[in-house]
Amino acid sequence: MLHLDNSGDLHRWSRAALGRGQTIAFVPTMGYLHEGHRSLMRIARERADQVVVSIFVNPLQFAAGEDLDTYPRDPEADLHICESEGVDLVFMPGDLYPSDFSTTVVVEGLTNGLCGATREGHFDGVATVVLKLFNLVRPTMAVFGQKDFQQLQVVRRMVRDLDLDIQIVGGPIVRDSDGVALSSRNAYLSSEERAQAAILNKSLIAADAQVRAGERDPEVLVEAVRQAVQAAPLARVDYVELVDAGSLEPVTGRLDRPALLALAVRFGQTRLIDNRVLGEEQLQA
């Protein structure tokens, strides 16, 4: 496994791989890797000749007061995980931005709601770093986790709008045995917070069961999830929303097609997100 930290070296490597007619699958991460990241690497390994993983805690997607300085890091363990999953190249730069960096990628519309409503500039930072990494890696395809569903849709829209010749693949959410979606930030949770975090997935499953039983009122579904989550003493709801899975616009009126039920909840200082597509079997567009 090759380990690079220099953008020029990565650019030369990718250019050579493509020159040999090889396909490149790319998995961008911020490190502190877990089984969810492994699942994305496995998707990439199945679909391409070369697999590249980037590990970079991107400062552009952190607002003032967020956890940039304390975001969990374990580069040695990350490299071991990548090697064990058959990754060909790990790109781990110290920085990606010159001191006078002045270019920002903005994907409008999709970034207005959900996490974008309270994390101003977050998705601009995501889109900017992803495009920068795409230009360095020059992947045939890139794999992103569906837990960050809004991020996945933002990247898809950017690729479409800018005519990038990259296939974007969404990897399923990977959960712990109690249903909690795997996340690097789970490391922040106390044992009590971690136990109560299981309510997120339980509430989503219950909402899906309501749809299966015939419930079609978005307000009823959202309120049921909100009340279930708020029953956990340590939970503070940031948002619970039912949105169109493509446009991410709120669903109004009767639910007549599959939609994304997304939530963000704080336990102490830790903000967790989760989601579930409701009605995939019962409501076909």
Question: What is the topological layout?
Answer:
Blueprint: E1 2-4, H1 7-19, E2 24-29, H2 35-47, E3 50-55, H3 75-84, E4 89-91, H4 122-137, E5 141-145, H5 149-161, E6 167-171, H6 191-196, H7 199-212, H8 218-230, E7 235-244, E8 259-267, E9 270-278
Parallel strand pairs: 1-4, 2-3, 2-5, 3-4, 5-6
Antiparallel strand pairs: 7-8, 8-9
* Strand residues, percent: 15-25%
Largest sheet: spatial strand order = 1-4-3-2-5-6
| Distinct helical segment count | 8
The CATH topology annotation of the largest domain reads as Rossmann fold
Structural class label: alpha/beta
- Binned, the helix content reads 25-40%
Main beta sheet strand tally, sense and closure: 6 strands, parallel
| CATH architecture assignment name of the largest domain | 3-Layer(aba) Sandwich
Apparent shape: globular
List the helices and strands in order.
Answer: EHEHEHEHEHEHHHEEE
Name the descriptors.
six-stranded parallel beta sheet; about 280 residues; Rossmann fold; 8 helices; alpha/beta; three-stranded antiparallel beta sheet; single chain; Pantoate--beta-alanine Ligase, Chain: A,domain 2
Give a verbal description of the structure.
It is a single chain. The protein has 285 residues and is α/β, with parallel strands linked by helices. It folds into 2 domains: 2-171, Rossmann fold (3-Layer(aba) Sandwich), CATH 3.40.50.620; 184-276, Pantoate-beta-alanine ligase, C-terminal domain (Pantoate--beta-alanine Ligase, Chain: A,domain 2), CATH 3.30.1300.10. It has 8 helices and 9 strands. It has helices at residues 7-19, 35-47, 75-84, 122-137, 149-161, 191-196, 199-212, 218-230; strands at 2-4, 24-29, 50-55, 89-91, 141-145, 167-171, 235-244, 259-267, 270-278. Strands 1-4-3-2-5-6 form a 6-stranded parallel beta sheet, with helices on both faces. Helix 3 links the parallel strand 3 (50-55) and strand 4. The model has no long low-confidence stretch (mean pLDDT 96).
